[in-house]
Amino acid sequence: MASNGIRDRVAIVGMGCTPFGEHWDKGADTLLIDAATDAFGSAGVSVDDIDAFWLGTYGSGISGLTLSRPLKLDYKPVSRLENMCATGSEAFRNACYAVASGAYDMAMAIGVEKLKDSGFSGLVSTRPVDDGTAASLTAPALFSLLSPAYAHKYGVDQAELKDVFTRIAWKNHHNGARNPRAQFRKEVAKEDIACSPIVAGPLGIFDCSGVSDGSAAAVVVRAEDAHRYCDNPLYVKALSFAAGPAAGPIDPGYDYTTFEEVVRSAADAYTQAGITDPRAEIAMAEVHDCFTPTELVLMEDLGFAERGSAWKEVLAGTFDLDGELAVNPDGGLKSFGHPIGASGLRMLFECWLQLRGEAPADRRVASLDRGRTLGLTHNLGGSPGECVSFVSVVGSQPSA
Amino acid sequence: MAVEAARLALRSAPPGTSPQALYVSTTSPPYLDKTNATAVHAALGLDPSTVAADLNGSVRSAVAALGLALDSAGGPVLVVASDVRTGLAGGADERDGGDGAVAFLVGPEASGLPVLAEPMAAASTTAEFLDRWRTPGQIASRVWEERFGEHAYVPLAEAAFTHALKDAGITADEIDVLVVTGTHSRAARRFLAVSGVRRDAVAPDLTPSVGNAGAAHPGLALADALDRAAPGQVVALVTLADGADVRVFRATDVVAGYAPASTVAEQIRSGRPGLSYAAFLTWRGQLVREPPRRPDPEAPAAPPSFRSEAWKLGFTGSRCTSCGTRHLPPNRVCVNCRVVDQMVPERLADVPATVATFTVDRLAYSLSPPVVAAVVDFDGGGRFRCELTDVDPEAVAIGDRVEMSFRRLYTAGGVHNYFWKARPVRAGRDEREERG
User: Fold this and answer.
1) ipTM over 0.90
2) Is residue A3 in a domain?
3) Chain A residue closest to B393 (CA)?
4) How far is CA B190 from the centre of its chain?
5) Nearest in space to A220 (alpha carbons), one of A376, A103, A365, A387
6) What CATH number is given to the structural domain containing A30?
7) Which of A197, A278, A360, B77 holds its CA 20 to 30 A away from the CA of A118?
8) Residues of A numbered 194-213 whose beta carbons fall under 8 angstroms of chain B's beta carbons: which are they?
């Protein structure tokens, strides 16, 4: 078996999430304190109750001291993790395993990223010195490689595909406009999205997630202890992670219309969670909409749409708040920006609100009313053909 | 450009031709102290035992390099001249200069290579005077009054020419093609008028189409002449540069059946118009443009570049001997069958490829924004993601045919980052073959 999973053995009993945005007046320290304090309050615990911490940050600090210094932790274990854009989810995954193993009773997963201090457009990665041969394309350019390949493979007109991208951005901004924590809290007209200045390939500014600062945190305990802290915990159904061989850029067999890493990690997660028909069983999904073509392809890779059909499903509104399966009901990376270490936990935070009935009525996903109880979060780090993928499934009900 | 010219020369020679020496000449060396020919050597994938050296600094250096090769008794020598011609904005040198490169493979008949032209005679005159000069670090040359150079050069050329004709045992009217080049176009024209050769023997002047390519120009004009030469014709090259150098050749029967990888004329015809003056100045470092809000490019580090010399400069990947899969860059573990260390090096610099998908990156740093990039699949296997160059960003499509070209990606921290880009298949033998 690919993985045994820890279905229903760990539960989230508290979460915190800062507003995401341009926090000119807050550093990473401050954001961490904000998110941690929120999460402690949400779980009704104090910092002393947490036995161990997993901190996800891509580049806003190194080592556990990045967290222990601002929180003044008294000699607790703190691991600092990085796994590209899945960094926040990776912190959560490891904290869950620590609790499931029995090594600790209560753990915190916390992620932070302070992007706005750099002054650069888009994300900036720090690489080891090299021989200068890696094509230094920006992230939007790398993800835009999906567009001509998808159009070519499925015979979709480029202009029609641009409409699909616009529809994805429009939907996520529509959702984000209903979220006080989002960086962008305004609906954007489709014509404004479609005409936004081009960044790479067919992608305009509005096809790209923003650049923001933020932090989010979760407190996890063993499921049997959950009700000591929380009347309605979220149960961890599945945690999966896949790092691919990064073969896409060197293997002509890869066609730039899919992320195999996502296909594999989703299949693993569905097996762990006992899901056979994700589109029919999951209430909501928070997926890695770093760029609009990414969300399009993810709908197929996550099993929400048949191959080559997601573009039609997007146009039909299948993934809208009131659609069959709401995708990115909180507004996604599109509305939140992508403070790398925080994003995965921000996605979980929306599951925390939605599945426990705490999301405001104007962005509550319709499928909850049809008795669905499961939420999915997904992160992707890297670029088409060479990435890591994380999928989690959480639910408001323990399995029968 | 030196690499491009040398690749064309080697591709025009019989397969497996391996020069014993490589001389590279330019008046615009990318580096001082450090040899520049070594990068050309690496980009050509030449054997480490092939010596590579610069003969740099003046137009005459390039002529001397060709002469050294012609006069040496050893095996084939690859002689390359490449030049970037600079001048102040709006000036005559900017208007009249042209960048270019040329390469000759020179060797005795005994080396087994088909000989296109045999040397018949050579003569030189040398003089020291200020006609055109430039102090190191300057982008623009100084020139003395035009009529002075004519006064100094014409007698020098006449003396050398007379000497060479005598050595060759011919008269001026027996010359079938006369190429006169040099740093002083007025003097060159004047010498043509008094040389005594037949009017129809005067080779077409490349300067209206190419401009004066400096150190590359004498070779460029000679290559063009040899592209057109008929068997038995006598071709003379006269170069006016700090004296005069005359080389007289006789075209052999081989020229009749010779099909170079690309002729000079084909390359001139395949030039892309539309280069903006702003881009031209930017590439020459004469115009500093607003960079994107992105980190500055980083200089390649010496140790990783040293480790990957065959890849970075020679575009040599690896092929799995177990399943045949090609890898770019070379990998140790096969992406297909996963065996470890069953790889042999494989150079793909001369293998054409097809665009699998592409993008135009308007945010990335480039000397020539926007960056056009593509995933390209090589004929016979292997894939790489790289920049496209010499391409219209609006015209790229899946299925486009491309070939690799050696380029300077950028210069950072005093280091020139040389690597390969793909460009649409150009006019020449490959394109002729693609069209069938």
Assistant:
1) yes
2) no
3) A201
4) 29
5) A103
6) 3.40.47.10
7) A197
8) 198-201
Q: Does residue A131 lie in a domain region?
A: no
* Best to test chain A binding among B325, B333, B339, B361 (most A CBs inside 10 Å): B361
DSSP conformation class of A47: G
| Single residue among A234, A264, A297 that ends a domain in this structure | A234
Indicate whether A174 and A286 sit together in one domain: yes
User: Which residue do the tokens 């990473």 mark?
Assistant: A28
Tell me how far apart the 2 most distant CA atoms of chain B are, in Å: 72
Phi, psi of B83 (to 5 degrees): -145, 140
For residue A148, what are the domain limits? 139-196+235-394
Residue A393's pLDDT is 98
Q: How far is CA B328 from CA A246, B23, B51, B231, in A?
A: 12, 29, 28, 44
Report how far residue A397's alpha carbon sits from residue A169's, in angstroms, rounded to the nearest whole number.
32
Residue B169: the pLDDT is: 97
CB count within 10 Å of CB B365 equals 18
Distance CA A341, CA A81 (A): 9
The residue ranges of chain A whose pLDDT is under 70 are 1, 400
User: Is 0.90 topped by the overall pTM?
Assistant: yes
Residues of chain B with C-beta less than 8 angstroms from the C-beta of A156? none
Q: Is B222 helix (H, G, I), strand (E, B) or coil?
A: helix
Q: How far apart are CA A171 and CA A175, in angstroms?
A: 6
Residue A258 lies in a domain: yes
Hey, what domains does chain B have and what are their CATH numbers? Answer: 2-269 (3.40.47.10), 277-299+348-434 (2.40.50.840)
Nearest C-alpha neighbor of A327 from the set A294, A358, A360: A294
Q: How many domains does chain A have?
A: 2
